[in-house]
């Protein structure tokens, strides 16, 4: 293993830091870089991957923040003693591009579609009241000319709570409001009429999901939640492609 190169050249994309973080993380998780082992020098990583020193330092800082590596003054960076056991997280710094946002939405589709079906089967009256309240709060925020991102996040989290499985909400809490990434949307550039139509459509989709859950229709709840997030993914893809 020692003779096998740990790194290879990284394609020159807008996400160089993320690409390098993924490369280093994969080497650590695969055991190619063992706990306590010293990482190659910044210069060695630069030469192997073709990225700049700044990118290397940013990637190492990200891994350090995730608890995967530690640094020792004058000695360099070392793999943490228990790197794999660290909690997985997604932070705002991970969302460098629209492609990153699309990856998050794909993850949400997998999580929330299942949760919506479970919510239709298991919800309580308290769950329904909570979801209704979150949508009312989002309507209030939009009327106040705000984006309503936090309220949007709270509604989706309330669906996870209604699933009856506490781990869904705990997973969502690990990610926080980055699960509803608004920084890439066109809302700030929309005309008033465009923004009203956009918000009205989002509101209809949310209310339809709630209605399916209230009626106990597992199949429809799943489909509507998936359609809702898939539509969001299409909007981001169009934004990425300049349409």
From TrEMBL:
Stretches assigned to the HTH gntR-type domain: 14-82
Transmembrane segments: none
Stored SUPFAM superfamilies: GntR ligand-binding domain-like, Winged helix' DNA-binding domain
Keywords: DNA-binding, Transcription, Transcription regulation
One protein family per Pfam: FCD
Protein name: FadR/GntR family transcriptional regulator
Annotated source species: Paracoccus broussonetiae subsp. drimophilus
Record lineage: Bacteria, Pseudomonadati, Pseudomonadota, Alphaproteobacteria, Rhodobacterales
